[in-house]
Design brief:
There is one protein chain. By secondary structure, the chain is α+β, with helices and mostly antiparallel strands. It has one domain. Helices cover 20% and strands 44% of the residues. It is built from two helices and seven strands, in the order ααβββββββ. It has a four-stranded antiparallel sheet. Strands 3-4-5 form a three-stranded antiparallel sheet, covered by helices on one side. Strand 4 and strand 5 form a beta hairpin. It is globular and about 35 Å long. The relative contact order is 0.23.
Amino acid sequence: MITERFISLCGKKRGEIEEWLRRIVFGGFKDEYMIFIRHRENGEEFLRPIPGSLITDIRRGSMIVQGEIIPIHRVEEIRRKNGFVVYKRRR
């Protein structure tokens, strides 16, 4: 039996990442979440944490963070500040 918690942790449903980001940005919970994106620098890839409070908007498959446009497909994880993972992209 697949539970809702399992689905949210695995990122199985299409569009679920956008739903989570919209909840965070427009729901007033920005300060409670950290978003981790894939970031490349000098040929190395690592997870870059972005506090939810820095996200200003979600549009057309991208999120705007302090004037920088980041594609949503780069989001790997969404965690609460206490470390609980609410969304994780499958690999």
